[in-house]
Design a protein that fits this description.
With 200 residues, the protein is mainly alpha-helical. It is 74% helix and 0% strand. It is built from nine helices and no strands. The relative contact order is 0.19.
Length: 200
């Protein structure tokens, strides 16, 4: 009988592939509109705008210090899966702009669409025992150990990041960005609950 709390290797691979692909698509939406987001991805986007270095390499580099913490706190399997998810997102985010283009994308709808797509991506990755690194590792650790929801931890980090972004970006851009980030965090806070959903 299959244990409903575990996934096979093929199921993990599919879930992480889905999550990384959807996350990359959400980054295409985000950067097309010139917006930012929260978490490590948001910091990577902001640094990418400021430096001119593509998002992928910045995001990959920012996550390097967190793997040791992930290994010590969450285990080897989590760390390997997270590394794979981060690497896949970094590569796909560099390739996907050549595959996807928008002739029209309303900023309000785009921010909401980003939030839903990114939220779905993160849920898939979380439920297959991984994260997209950085603050996501800390958020998952706190949720598993204390019950403090991952979405709420990310919201606190986002607040500091968006306050910093106001120094460099127009307030309208930050406002639309905040809308997208709020949709991401609400999606995770409502749906990523171990007391309600038994699959890990």
């Amino acid at each position: 009988m299959t244990d409903p709390k575990t996934h096979s290797l093929i199921e993990d691979a599919q879930g992480i592939a889905f999550g990384a692909t959807m996350a990359a698509f959400s980054i295409v939406i985000l950067t097309h509109l010139g917006l930012i987001t929260g978490q490590t991805a948001g910091l990577a986007v902001l640094l990418s705008y400021a430096s001119g270095i593509p998002f992928g390499p910045v995001f990959f580099a920012l996550n390097i210090p967190f793997y040791w913490f992930g290994y010590r706190r969450m285990g080897l399997a989590f760390t390997i899966k997270t590394f794979v998810a981060v690497a896949a997102l970094s590569i796909l985010s560099a390739l996907m702009p050549a595959w996807v283009d928008f002739s029209t994308l309303n900023p309000a709808f785009g921010a909401i669409l980003f939030g839903f797509v990114s939220g779905a991506a993160l849920l898939a990755i979380f439920r297959h025992g991984a994260s997209l690194g950085g603050i996501g590792i800390l958020a998952l650790y706190l949720q598993d150990r204390t019950g403090f929801r991952a979405g709420q931890t990310q919201l606190l980090f986002d607040a500091a990041l968006f306050a910093t972004a106001l120094i460099f970006l127009p307030w309208q851009t930050v406002a639309w960005s905040f809308l997208g980030a709020a949709v991401v965090n609400l999606t995770i806070a409502i749906n990523h609950r171990r007391d309600r959903y038994i699959a890990t």
